[in-house]
Amino acid sequence: MTALYDYGEFEQQPGLGRPLVTRVVHSRADLEAARAGRFGETAVVMTMGALHEGHLALIRAARASAKTVIVTVFVNPLQFGPNEDFDRYPRTLDEDVRLCEEAEVDVVFAPPVDDVYPGGKPMVTVNPGPMGDLLEGVFRPGFFGGVLTVVNKLLNLTAPDVAYFGQKDAQQLALIRRMVLDFNLPVEIVGVPTVREPDGLALSSRNRYLSTEERATALALSAALAAGAQQATAAGIRSAARAVLDRAAAADPPLRTDYLALVGPDDFLEVPDDYAGDAILAVAARVGGTRLIDNVPLRIAAAQPAGGQSNGDGAP
Ligand code: AMP
Predict the structure, then answer these.
(1) Same domain, 145 and 182
(2) Pairing status of strand 107-109 against strand 290-300
């Protein structure tokens, strides 16, 4: 039987611009071949795999906006500390590819470490600057240098017009925006709101580490953010969120909070108690052997003369 349409290896459904096949490539050369002949806007979604609905929200946003969608799956050794979970981080490429096929992704780029770091451990890396030493940077020294270095490399390898990142990793997103600004990188960065379970828990590849009891304790992160978001002032937001975390510290198993911070969205510096404007309420905590982060964007209204109202914005 003769094919009605012959688009060669990179078949497109006529009129829809959607791929009939998702190409899975592992080498830089194959990535270039998979991209050759394509035209129109290219979007990239960078992931470490173990894909869930949070990743899929990014992929769907990319699919809705771009002609070609590339998803990278790479567990980046450079951003893991010596005592972190690099070795046990979930690796589920077959399932990731299946989800990418369903989401009509054009290319999955899943390179081995050697292909991303051909010279071994890089000598030249991105310095995240002062924002990289705050919050996550305090508890994960070197983390943001590793993240920005690999994001920079994957931007160079995939050459997208637009890249999608989750607000779930708000400090990472702010640093990537800053790197793009400071390095004049020719890419648009789009943030996508955090996807949560119905009970509030932010989706994360690490949630699969949690036992039932640990998961119940972990709900304190989103509950703390929701309590904070009900308040009208910076001081009120901090203390309401802190109260929820303090209660969870006495739970079984206990929540051990690394930080709770109310910060400016562009510099991640703590805002003063009389602050008005956009802010991010961010939390990181450990339960059992699992470390989780979460945050919510808030808009704090200027103080009212009397009977100030809840800002009510962005409750998880
Ligand atoms: P990761 O695989 O954890 O490195 O995440 C890859 C991308 O997915 C990052 O831009 C994350 O911010 C984003 N992401 C992870 N979890 C969520 C979520 N629950 N909602 C929205 N985006 C997310």
Answers:
(1) yes
(2) unpaired
